[in-house]
Specification:
With 171 residues, the protein is of the alpha+beta class. Helices cover 38% and strands 18% of the residues. The protein has 6 helices and 6 strands; from the N terminus they run H-H-H-H-E-E-E-E-H-E-E-H. A hairpin with a 2-residue loop joins strand 2 and strand 3. Helix 4 crosses helix 6. The radius of gyration is 22 Å and the shape is globular.
Length: 171
């Protein structure tokens, strides 16, 4: 639906302007993600491709198919059990966990994986345990929808990250 102008117009005639306004009005509205170049192909888009604004973590989780929702709920329970004093909220469009008023952890369901977001220090600390998984240097661990959660490893990572946040809060 792009409008291409091959040469600069001399003047737009009233009937041409009316046609242009009609054509623009008929273009589909784009979401903020699409305007930023993060449309459907982006790996952070939800599995069900539902881009409506969610109001709670429960809304977020209920938008996923059963298989994905089960893993997401397992991870949620693991986080809450490991650091029960954390505050859960929906932030940046995904379940986010705050500790002592600071960002601690986040997870998100993506098309091809479950993303677990922690900190660069946590990823570095567990790099030898994470060799079987896709990670990045920033903060991300990608977990397959087709595999059980590595609960023991995740508990250690959650505990490490919680202590890191507590130490940051003391500074």
């Amino acid at each position: 639906h792009a409008i291409m102008i091959k040469k600069p117009p001399q003047a737009i005639q009233p009937d041409s302007l009316s046609k242009l306004k009609t054509a623009v009005a008929e273009l589909p509205l784009m979401t903020g993600k699409q305007r930023c170049g993060q449309g459907i192909a982006n790996e952070r888009d939800d599995v069900n491709m539902n881009t409506e604004k969610r109001k709670s973590v429960e809304d977020y989780l209920s938008s996923f198919p059963d298989k994905q929702r089960n893993l997401l709920n397992q991870l949620r329970a693991l986080i809450k059990k490991t650091i029960p004093q954390c505050e859960e909220k929906l932030s940046w469009g995904a379940p986010t966990y705050m500790l002592e008023g600071r960002y601690c952890l986040q997870f998100a369901g993506n098309q091809k994986h479950l993303g677990f977001y922690t900190s660069p220090t946590t990823i570095r600390q567990f790099r030898t345990d994470l060799t079987a998984y896709k990670t990045n240097e920033k903060n991300t661990l990608q977990l397959s929808w087709d595999q059980p959660l590595p609960e023991d490893l995740l508990i250690k990572m959650i505990q490490f990250r919680a202590e890191e946040v507590r130490q940051e809060a003391l500074k």
